[in-house]
Amino acid sequence: MTNINGKAYAMNAVTPMKAWKTPILRILFFLLGAIKSKQQDLINLSFIHFARWVIVKRNQFPRLAPEQPEEQLHYDYLLFFSNFNGTWNQYIDAFSAVLSTGLNMIWRWSEKFPGSVPVTAFKRYIALVQFDTDYYYTAYPYATTNDVKAAIRVDDRLQAFANDSAGLSPDEFQQAYLKLLVKVQADIGALGPAPMGT
Amino acid sequence: MANLNGNMYGLTILSPILDDPKIKISHDTALRMYLQNMHRHERSPFAKVAGTHICRLVVMDDVVYVGSPAKEEHLKSKYLIFNSNLYGGVDAYLEEMARKIPDVADDIWSHCVGYPGVTDPRAFAAYMKKCQIETTFFFADVNDKTVEQTLKALQTKVEFTAFVEENQGRSPAELQREFAAFWERMRKSPPPDGGAKELTKGQAARA
After folding, report:
1. N or C, where is chain B less crowded by C-beta within 10 Å?
2. Of A24, A137, A134, A45, which Cα lies nearest the Cα of A98?
C-alpha cells in the first residue's frame, strides 16, 4: 500500500449507482465544468493538486479477448481519484465542512450515501468504499498545491524583475528590489516537512 | 472534452488482468509485488516520461458492496488502473512511455489481457486507449505548466528565499552585483530531478 508520497495522498474510491441515475450525474458534472464559479470552493481549499470523477457504465469495463469473462453488473460505478495534501482525516473533515453541498450533489446518486454531514457517517462510508494505491509517483513530492502556486508567482515576478531592473543605477535597483520583496514576501520561505498523522 | 483541464490531461485506464489458475503466483499478486518494489523518487520510471506530474497504479480487485438493501455483486476480472495527470497530448505521452520505459511497461502490462508489447509504440498507445475510460470531471488546480516549468519554479522559490536571507544589509552596488550573479546561475541551471524526495537550497549553485 502506497497511498502517500511526500506531501501528496492518493485516494481512490468506488461507489455503485443505479444505471438510471448516471445521466443525471453527468449533467451535473457538465454544469460544474461549464460554470467555473461553481469550482471556486475547490480552488479556495487549495490542497488538491488534481482530482477526478469517472463514471464507468456497467457494460463499459474493457473486455479485450473472448476468453475474458464478460462482466454482468447491475450497477454503474462512480470512481473518484484525488491527489491532496495533508492527512486523510483533515481532507475528509475539510470536504465535509466546506463542500458538503457539492459533495452531496455528486454522491447522493450512489447507493447508501449517508450525506457528507454529519462527518462521522460520511467518514465511515468513505472508509468502506476506498481502496489502496499500489504505486504512487509525483514529480514534486516535497511540494503542496500552495507551494506550487507560490513558486509560480515568485518565478513570474522574478522574471519580470530581472528584465525590468536591467540598466538601473544601484540605488534605483535597491528600491525596486525592496518593492519586489514586499510583493513576494508571502510566497517565499521553506517548503517544510510533510504532515504527520492519519 | 472532460479529460482536459487547461493543458492538463486526466488519463484513466482500466486494463483487465490475466487470470490463469494454473500458475503458482497469480498475475494480480505478481503485479502488486512488482509495483511495491518499483522506485518512487528520482529513479522512478515515470520521472523519465516528461509529461507526468502525478500518476498512480492500482490493482482493483473488485467493486465494493455497501450493504443492504443494495445488491451484492462482483467483478469477473481484476483490473489494473493507471491514472496519470499529464501535460500535453495523450498519444505522444503513451508512445513516449513505450520508448522511454519499455522494460517497465512490459513488466507491468504483460500481466494484462491483450497486451501487444512495446516494439511498436503506436500499437502500445492504441492498446492503452482501448482500455481508456473517459474522465467525467477533471479538476486541476494548476493547469498551464509543464513538469519542467513547475520544478524550475519550485527551485526558484527555494533559491530566492536563500538569496534574500544571505544578502540582507548589502550595499546597493553589492546587492545588484549579487543578484546579477544569482539570476545568471538560475538561468543556466537545469531543473531539479523529477520525483526527488527533497529540494534543498544550493542545488542550482552546484549544477
Report:
1. N
2. A45
- Residue A1 pLDDT exceeds 60: no
ipTM of the complex: 0.96
Quote the cell numbers at residue B68: 443492504
| The residue count for chain B | 207
Helix, strand, or coil (residue B206): helix
Residue B45 near residue B38, CB atoms below 8 Å: yes
**C-alpha cell at position A185:** 514576501
Domain boundaries, chain A: 4-131, 145-184
Closest by Cα among B88, B85, B89 to B139: B85
CA-to-CA distance for B157 and B36, rounded, in angstroms? 33
Chain B residues with CB-CB distance to A11 below 8 A: none
Q: What is d(CA A177, CA A160) in angstroms, rounded to the nearest whole number?
A: 12
Using a CB-CB cut-off of 8 Å, the residues of chain A touching B15 are 62
Kindly report the nearest CA distance between residue B20 and chain A, in angstroms: 11
**With left for phi above 0 and alpha for psi between -120 and 50, is residue B88 left, alpha or beta?**
left
Q: What is the pLDDT of residues B174-192, one digit of tens each?
A: 999 999 999 999 999 999 9
DSSP secondary structure string, chain A?
---EETTEEEEEEEEEE-GGGHHHHHHHHHHHHH-GGGGHHHHHH--EEEEEEEEE-TT-S---STTSPPP--SSEEEEEEEEEES-HHHHHHHHHHHSHHHHHHHHTTBTT---SSSHHHHHHHHHHHB---SEEEES-TT--HHHHHHHHHHHHHHHHHHHHTTT--HHHHHHHHHHHHHHHTTT-S---PPP---
CB contact under 8 A, A152 and B142: yes
Helix (H, G, I), strand (E, B) or coil at B177: helix
- Taking the C-alpha atoms of residue B81 and residue A150, their distance in angstroms, rounded to an integer, is 32
Whether residue B207 is predicted with pLDDT greater than 60 in this model: the reply is no
Residues paired with B137 in a beta bridge: A53
